[in-house]
Amino acid sequence: MIPLITEEIYSRMVRSAWCAAIEPSPGPQHLDHSDGLPVEPPTSTWDVFNPGLAGSSSSKSPKTLRSLSQPVAVFKPVPTLPSPFPLTAEIAYLLHIYKSGVATWMDLFDHSCTYQRVVTQRTLSSKLLLYCTCAFASKHLSLLVGGEIWGSAAGRYYGEALHMLIQLLGSTAPQDDALTATMLLSSYEMIAAQGQEHRRHFYGALMLIKTHGICARSVGLDKANFWIYIRHEIVVALVTESKLLLSPNEWNASFRDGETEEDLLGNQLLWLLARAIDLVYAKHTDTGKTVATLSERMELLRAAEKWFDELPASFQGVKYGDVTEEGFSKLYFAIPAAGEWNYKAEENVIDFYKQVP
Questions:
Q1: DSSP string, 277-299
Q2: In terms of DSSP H, where are the helices of the chain?
Q3: In this predicted model, what pLDDT tens digit does every residue of 201-215 receive, in sequence order?
Q4: In sequence order, what are the residues at sequence separation of 6 or more whose Cβ sits closer than 8 angstroms to the Cβ of residue 321?
Q5: pTM value?
Q6: CA distances (Å), 79 to each of 57, 75, 122, 227, in order?
């Protein structure tokens, strides 16, 4: 489940030099439907896939420039390129909220910040991704305290984006943005339907992943989309106490020994967690008893222990200060998130050992 940004964090987040020209928030505006798009499209991505998918210039004056002994190049401002579609103050504001807020959730295990950088860049040339990001950002705003005013705007952007996704999937045009759009809209659906079963929301994403052969070894946006899907799959599997739709055996995952990058270590931990989920929730159809063997469980435990033992010092923490009467020491983590992962990893290993007969 994607967490919500608190009002306090949000209030600090939206103030920056980048968005000074567009703040305060322009508030939800009426969408221009002059391009003929319907106002009442399908209700979720399930409806999309289920039926049909088998600089600045120099401040020196000319006189000052001529007086310099060294040749000075005078740079002219880069001309503003026309947008393929109009950008309103509301859309510009929502793009900022997306990039500095919800996109950081998507890039949790991605040091390349693909959703913050690449997706934001593509919104300027893809109306589909533009409306997907606006829908996601405005839905997030609507869930903040006092953000109800953004509810109707979120619904409109979401509906427009669903309609455009349907058009894309039903055409012969390149499908480069289809999976990204599906992940964004599915994420919208998850935060919009809290407490409900979310597995069907990612059915379309799974079909696109399998159709296009996207896996853990993919690169760029495909790689980012794959791991975002996996995180959501794991959430659904834990909530429903069932195996993953995309088995870890189908991920084509490969990890090197001695890895030090936190994002790759996080993805490796997801791979171990997914394997554990499939072992725990693999039940016999008739008896309902687990079908995992002791050797399979012990093999996974050894893999988890190996991952834990090979973590770099920045991930494991460095002891400092005096030892307490109980024999404990404080630990310093260069990456704060690593401390949380360290604690959870130990907790998961202990819980898993309890299930070994």
A1: HHHHT-B-TTT--B---HHHHHH
A2: 7-13, 45-49, 62-67, 89-97, 103-106, 114, 120-123, 127-142, 151-169, 178-192, 203-211, 220-240, 262-280, 294-309, 313-316, 336-354
A3: 678 899 999 999 999
A4: 329, 330
A5: 0.73
A6: 12, 12, 20, 38
